[in-house]
Amino acid sequence: MTLLKRMWKWLTASSSRAARKGHPDLYPLNVAALAQELNLVDEGRRLGEAGIPESDAKTLTGPEAAVVQKVEKARQDYIDWAVIRLNIHNRDLGRRRLTRETVDQALQAHKMFNRTADALLTGRESLVRRLRDSAVNQLAELAAFQARHSLARDARTPRHKLLTWGLLIFLIVVEGVLNASFFAQGVSTGLIGGFFYAVVPAGINVVVTFFSGKHLVCYIRRNQVRWKIAGVVSLLATLVFMTTMGLGIAHLRDSLTADAVEPAAAALQAMKDSPLRLRDIFSWLLFAVSVLGGGLALADGMTSDDPYPGYGPIYRRAQQAVDIHEDEIAALRADLERKKDDQLEVLDRIIAESRANVAALASLIDDKAATALRLSNALQDADNALDALLSLFRTANQLHRNGTPRPTCFDIRPKLRPVKVPDFDTTADKALLDEDRYTLKTLLGEIQGIRACIQEAFNQRFDVFEPLDAHFPRKERV
């Protein structure tokens, strides 16, 4: 059991010493524990009663040698720890120094932005120029059209295509439903059959009159006489078409109500023989509904775009060209601003890191000096522990010598093995710190100028591309 206890004590003591090696000053020599471990008082009494050491002895006794060994071991552990800490400090100090490359990167930030912006513009300038030329040409064409036709206003916004086609379908359905009630009297399938009989001619009537009003009759509003004549002729032709379609639909109803074998052929023959002769009032109402539907479609076509023929399309082409050009400019500006913000962000990051490095460098120098002080205190504590432990042994020995003279060697402090104390001098480190502080101060003094150069370079690059808002105000666009 005693052997097991000693082994357990040795294992735990070894682990403790290993853990303490990294932080010797946090675990100073415990005089009381060492005195008990080395049994200094009992050994001093036992050897004193035996007259050991002799009064003229020159060498240390066993307990004294054990004390010296313990203290020397602790002092060497302190030195080992100090060497490790010094290497760590020197490594961290080297990492925290401001590098010339970092400072140069900040000082040259505006030049870096210039190169980045030039590279961006080189790849986009030809496209922007081409879009600008297209927009200028379209604006010139629009201006010439306005001057030629004495137009000083903006073109009216056309109806959406969905709404236009919706109105057409609505007119066809309404006319078909109204006509179906008249056709229902002449077909065996009633109202449903009448609707299908009426919707085809109603659709032809509405579609033809709509496109005539949109593309032909509208020229009646042109300033030039020849175009007005063309518009009038188109109007007359459209009216003739509407009247003919109305009479044809009405005669078709008459043929259906008369149970003709071939209603379409009979209606055509009746149109040739007596176009204005209809069987009853309902056929005349059918004629009126057809003419009204065609008239509404004609008015719808004439009002679906700007009232002045040709002005809406040319105005929209110019508008689209200017929008595309200025959208590209806006995208280019956004890209330039992103490049500018990225460069300013890099600049801010360098400044923040430089400040942090200088502050950390100062803190590391303080830590290095504090480590030197901690080492000095630890070595001094070891010397004090040596004196205290030797005093315990020698006092007990002297008290139990039974009149034997006190050894002269008790008046001599044993010499410890010299240790090489690491150099914790911070003079060179402080000189580097002063240099970094000066570099940072210089950089901070120039930072506003660098920012201004980046902003000026941004403005110069972007001002090359003049927007066309002065020629075509965006507030008028759709």
Automatic annotation (TrEMBL):
Transmembrane residues, as ranges? 162-183, 195-217, 229-250, 281-299
Q: Which keywords label this protein?
A: Coiled coil, Membrane, Transmembrane, Transmembrane helix
Domain of life, per UniProt, equals Bacteria
Question: What are the coiled-coil residue ranges?
Answer: 315-353
Protein name per Swiss-Prot or TrEMBL = Transmembrane protein
Phylogenetic classification of the source organism: Bacteria, Pseudomonadati, Thermodesulfobacteriota, Desulfobacteria, Desulfobacterales
